[in-house]
Fold:
Amino acid sequence: MLTLAAAALTGGLLVAPGASAEDDTTSDPEGARLRSGTSSLVVVDAKTQKARSKVAALGIDTTSKVTPQGLQAVLHGPADAEVLRDAGFDFTVEDADLAATERKNAKADRQYAATTVRSPLPSGRTSYRTLADYNRELTKLARTYPDLVKPITLKNKSVDGKAVRGIEITTNAKNVRDGKPVFLQMGLHHAREWPTGEHVMEYAYDLLQNYESRSGDKRAKRIVEQSRTIVVPVVNPDGFDISRSATPIGDFSTFDYEMKRKNCSISTTTPAQFTTGTCADNPAGRLRGTDLNRNYPGFWGGPGASATWSSDTYRGDAPGGEPEVDNIRTLISQRQVVTLISNHTYSNLVLRPPSLLSTGQSPDEPVYAALGEKLVGANGYTNQASYQLYDTSGSTEDWSYWNTGGFGFTFEIGATEFHPQYEDGVVAEYLGLKPSTGAGKGGNREAYYQMSLATLDKKLHSTLTGQAPKGHTLKIRKSFVTQTSPVLRPDGSEAPPLYYEDTLTSSYASTGGDFRWSVNPSTRPLVVGRYGREPLGPPQEPTTLTNPAGIPAVNGTEQSTFTIEAPPEADNGTATVTVGWPGTSGDEAVDWDVEIIGPDGTAVASAATLDDPEVAVLVDPKPGEYTVRVTNYAGGAAATDWEGEVTFRSPDPPSYSGIKESWTLTCVKDSNGKVVNTRDVVVDRGKTRDLGGVCNRAQLKR
Ligand SMILES: [Zn+2]
Structure:
C-alpha cells in the first residue's frame, strides 16, 4: 500500500510505494518503536512554552496535552519522528499503535450501545452521532419546540456543498431582534473531535427539557427566557462526515480518514498531483484541507499555524478565507454574541485569549480569568490563557474577543484521545461522572450552565436602555480594519501583515416603550490596551547559580538554589534561569536539563531540550527560595560542566490607550424605512447607557 507521511508531502515529494519501509529503522530505541503506516502517540520533550511553540511550528500533529514530561503529539510514521529529531527534540512513545486503541474503543462503543437502552444523557443517546443524525435531530428539536427553537442555516455551504446548520434557543425564538444577550456554542471545527458536537447537542436538549419540565428548573427557565443560545454542533460538516463515516482502514495512515482534522478546501499552493479526487479519496488523503481553527483573521499568518498546505495546522490561503470560518464570523458579526465556547478535544483545558504570547495580556484579564475559574470549578479542567500551552494564530477567539469584545473560551474536552469511548468522552465528561475530572462537580453540563449564567450577567457585557415607539427598529453598527500578524512564509521569513475589514451590526425591534438591549462594549479590546501591574520595587540584581563540586553520574542530578525577594526590596515580573555549558547545541552527550522547584516544593518550570543554553522563564514568581535541579542523562563531564545565572525583569505595567470607540445607533421607521435619528453611543463593559428617547427627532438636532 502507498504510504505518504506528512513530511514527505510537505515538499510535494511522492514517496515511492514501499520505499518508506526502509526508513523504519532509526538509531534510537524510541524511534524504532514507530512503524511506517502506523500512527503513534508520543510525548515530545518540550517542557517550556517556547519549546512547545517550536514543536507546534514544525507542523507536527500536536495535541493540547502537556504532561510533566512534555507535549503530547501524534506521529504519523517515522518521517514525523525525523522532523522532531532534526529539530533537536526527544520523545517517548506512549501508544505505539493508535489504530489498535481506536479498534478497541470502537468495540467497547458497540458493546455499550448494544447493552444500554438509554444513557443518562438528556437525549439518551448511546453512540456517536453521524452528520445525518445531527441534521435529523436539529429538525426534530425545531418541530418539538416550535416556540423555543429557531432552525438556522449559516450563510455559506461547506467547501463540498453541505449546509451548515444550527438552532437558536429562547422563548419566542423567531424574533432574533429581541435584545437578549447571545451565547454561541460550537462543536466540530476539527473533524475528528467527535465528542464536541455531542456535548453541544446535549446542552440543547438539556436546556429545552429542563425549561419544559414540570418540576420547574428555575435556572433553565431563566436562561431560556432571558438569553439566546445559538448551537452549531458541526462547524465543519465535510471533514466530520468523512472522519465519522468513512470506512476505517484501521492503520491511521494518511489514507485512514478517521483522523482527518481539517476541512476539504484545496489550497492554491497544492502541487497539481495532489489536487485530483474527492476529499474522501484523493492522493493527499486526510491531509487535504485547511485547519479551521487557524484560519480566523485575528492575528492570522503568525506563529503556531503552518504555511504548508499539507500540514495538519495549515492556516489556509487567506485570513478568514474558508467558507466554514466565514459562516461563524458572519454569525458573530450580526448578533451580539457576548459569550461563546468553541469545543475541542482533548487535554482538560479551558483556554482564553491571547493565543500568542507576543500579544500581551487582554485588558479584561482579571475578569476573564475569574470567569474561566468558574467554568473549571465544574469540569475540573485547567484554566489558562491559550498561549501558555503553545503559540497559535488564527484561532476563533483571537478574532472574536479582540474584535467584538465577547468573552470566548476554547474547551479541550477530556483527558485522552480525540474521540475516546462514548461512555467516557461523552457521557462521563458531559454529566461529570467518573472517570472525568469533573466527577462530582457537575462536569461540562454544569460548566455550560455557568457560561449561560455569565451570559445573563450585566457586569460582563454592556447594556443599552431607553424608549422607542412601536413600529421602529434600532440598529447599531461599527466598521473597522485590522492587521493580521506579519505573514510567515514557509521558509520562516516574514511578509508584511495583511488587512481585513469587519462590520459588526445588529438590530432591536421595538415593542414600544422602554427597551433593554444587551450588547458588546463599543470599544474593541484590541485598542483598549493590555493588562499589567505597576512594579512595587526595582527588579532584583542578577544572581549566579552555584555549581556544587563534582559532576553527576548517568541520570544524576545536581542542585542549586536562589531566592526571589519580596517588595519593596524587589518586584519581579519575570525571573529567567539560564544554564549553559561548553559544547555544541544539540549534542545529546553533553546535554543538561533544568527543572525549577518553587518555595512550596512543586515544579514551577523546566527547560529540557537539546538547546545550549537551556532557558526557563518564571512569570510573576512568588517570593521565596527556589531549587534548581540540573540533570545530565548521559553523565556529566568536567570539561562540559554547566554554569548558570538568574536574571530579573520588572513586571509589565498596565498600558491602556484611553481610546474610546462608539457604536453608530440609528432608529428606523419600519413602515417607510426612513432613518428617524442617528447618534454615536459609547458604552463600556459592565455599564448601562440610558439613551432616553432614541427615536425623538429633537435629538437629531443636538
Ligand atoms: Zn480541535
